[in-house]
Amino acid sequence: MNRYKRALRELRNEVPRGYTSPAVRLVRPALALAGCAALGIVVFSLPVKASAVSLGEVAQAMSRRPVKHTINYDMMLPGREHQSAEIWEADGKVRMGDGNLWVIFDEKGEWAFIPSQKQVAYSEGKHLMAGIVSEGDTLPDLERAIRGKSPNTTVTLSERVENGRRVLELRSRRYFETNFKGQGRKRYAIESVWGADPTDKLPRWGRHYQAVHSENGTSVRMRQVGRSVIDYPEKAPPGTFDVTVPEGWKLRRLPPGIAFGIGTPSGVAYGAGKLTKK
Amino acid sequence: MIRKALAGDERAGDWIAREHYPKIIRFLRHLTGNLSDAEDLTQNTFIRANSALAEFRHDSSLSTWLHRIAYREYCHYLRDRREYVEPFPEMTHEFRQRSEDAVVLAAAIQNLPSDLREAFVLQEIQRLSVREAATVLGVPEGTVKSRNHLARTRLRTALEGVWGHPNSAESLETKNESI
Prior knowledge:
The complex is a heterodimer.
Chain A: H1 3-12, E1 64-65, E2 85-86, E3 117-118, H2 139-146, E4 153-162, E5 165-180, E6 184-196, E7 203-213, E8 220-229, E9 243-244, E10 249-252, E11 259-264, E12 267-271, E13 274-277
Parallel strand pairs in A: 1-11, 2-9
Antiparallel strand pairs in A: 3-12, 4-5, 5-6, 6-7, 7-8, 10-13, 11-12
Chain B: H1 2-6, H2 10-32, H3 35-52, H4 62-80, H5 94-97, H6 100-110, H7 114-125, H8 130-137, H9 141-163
């Protein structure tokens, strides 16, 4: 079989790496990773108290959709109190409720997600840039793992102040080129940025970028294409993700098998639904 | 299963989504060139399919019907996209999943003109028949055949630059062969 046919067969048989049936339930109390758009996520589900509007069906999510936008987030040290999340509807604008809740919205509509279950994920293997982290990695560990491994990767570790808090940040960028006959040489870049609290240096969030060219090709900027949140489930107390549906609101379930992620400072929780007024 | 799903059987609906999710996201990933957008479009596809399931007339397979919805979502995505994004061979973790040759082929497919890419992906990767691909794209069967043929010709040219000139026994023809 020639190379083309082997490669074609491989593409034909691809499935999303995180694709898993609902029957698979693994409990992993250790550190976890939420990967970027290019990484499939193995979904774990930890039992939490059901909300008044049960989203237990969310456990049947097939794969995780990367978070596209957030409006606010906070980073908290392990062991802090986590407030219950509340939900609300956005009528063209996103509004925050009480608690540390992220709302994800896309360009086509308004969505609010109720955290009802915690999901953690893990990844295997080492990597050439900081697209993912492995269990137990601190940002300095990650920086040491990447630096010098590839001539096309740059990595920096720095500390800065964001919203009055000290943040440890790891930034890695990787360049590569293609040169297909008839297409010419093209250069690409991808970048990942991970943030951590400087006290434990454990990554808690990541943002992932790819190069975007202007229409006339003259300028390039990095566009965010994904976001990661890392969950440390053993740190969050029970009931963290209990939710209350506000009076007058109801939850409409999305079709089965589709779920979205929502981040909280303690990590990642999942829910699915669109809020509508009764 | 469709009848059960229409009757409100959530497990049936779940089964339908699970059964077809991998092929739809694979299809959209090859069209869009990136997994992130493919995931969004796949989500939209199943949302629309769920709403329109009652209108499914069984005049095609469910798979073809879902591909058609997915293709429409992709067309909306193209229309609404405001910035030009180079076809992007996914780098990060994909190289650990795909062999180097598969990465090269995927990138070459991405560099095809969109009409040729669509026909090629539907027939050669998604393994739809000419008739099914024509239904998805809304074009005559002859158009699908000619676009796929042209796509393979262009791929051969592109891949020669990377893999070298294939020997006479090797070709990009895969019809009538099981791979």
